[in-house]
Every structure is written in structure tokens, then in C-alpha cells.
Design goal:
By secondary structure, this protein is mainly α. It has a domain of 51 residues. It is 62% helix and 5% strand. The protein contains 2 helices and 2 strands; from the N terminus they run ββαα. It has a two-stranded antiparallel ribbon with strand order 1-2. It is rod-shaped. The N and C termini lie far apart (129 Å).
């Protein structure tokens, strides 16, 4: 090669052909645009992918957290309803026990209704 047809590599400073796109010694691109483009793929795109995955992960965490909160509220509501039912059944059992302990032939057991003549 002539001195006119060679240039120094921007990175390793070895003599390479003037028309070379890539240095044969260090494998770096010689054109600025090509260099930036290769750097873009090496560094910037993985960063965008990482940020995208981080956002996706946070979004899933947030949705799961909200679903867990809703499930906790539903559980508390079900426990309150269960307690009300338990209290109501205890009250019904007390009423039935009270009716069964009343003496006399005029006692009638009617759920939800007490005739006046049975209480006299």
C-alpha cells in the first residue's frame, strides 16, 4: 500500500486502507456515523430494554398489590358477614331454648312470632 492510500485507525493507530470501513487490527468502525451506530447497539439499546423491563415489572407489582388489597377487603367483608350469621344463629338458639323451657300446654313454637296467650 502507498502512503497516499493508508490512514491511521482512530482507535489503535495502526495503518489501514483509506477505504476501510473496519480496522482489521481492532475491529472498530472508521466512519463516525458507523461508530456511533455500533455504539448505539452496544450500549443504548440494552439500556432501553432494561428500562422497559423494569417498567413492566413495576407495573405487574402495582397491579398485584392492588389485587391483594381488594382480596383482603373481600376477606374482611366475608368475616364480618360470617360473624353476623354466627351472632344471629346464637340469638335464634337462645330464643328456641327460652321457648322450650316455658311450661304449660298453651306454649306454641312459631319461629319469629310469639302469641300473646302463651306469654300470659
Amino acid at each position: 500500500m502507498n502512503e497516499n492510500q493508508t490512514v491511521c485507525c482512530y482507535y489503535c493507530k495502526e495503518l489501514i486502507s483509506k477505504d476501510a470501513k473496519v480496522c482489521r487490527y481492532c475491529s472498530h468502525y472508521q466512519k463516525i456515523f458507523s461508530c456511533l451506530f455500533s455504539q448505539w447497539f452496544k450500549h443504548i439499546i440494552p439500556i432501553f430494554i432494561s428500562v422497559g423491563l423494569l417498567f413492566f415489572t413495576y407495573r405487574q407489582y402495582y397491579e398485584t398489590k392492588n389485587e391483594r388489597i381488594e382480596a383482603q377487603k373481600a376477606l374482611e367483608k366475608a368475616q364480618k358477614a360470617e360473624k353476623r350469621i354466627s351472632d344471629a344463629s346464637k340469638a335464634i338458639a337462645k330464643v328456641l331454648l327460652a321457648q322450650s323451657t316455658l311450661k304449660g300446654p298453651s306454649v306454641s313454637i312459631i319461629v319469629g312470632h310469639f302469641p300473646m296467650h302463651s306469654l300470659l
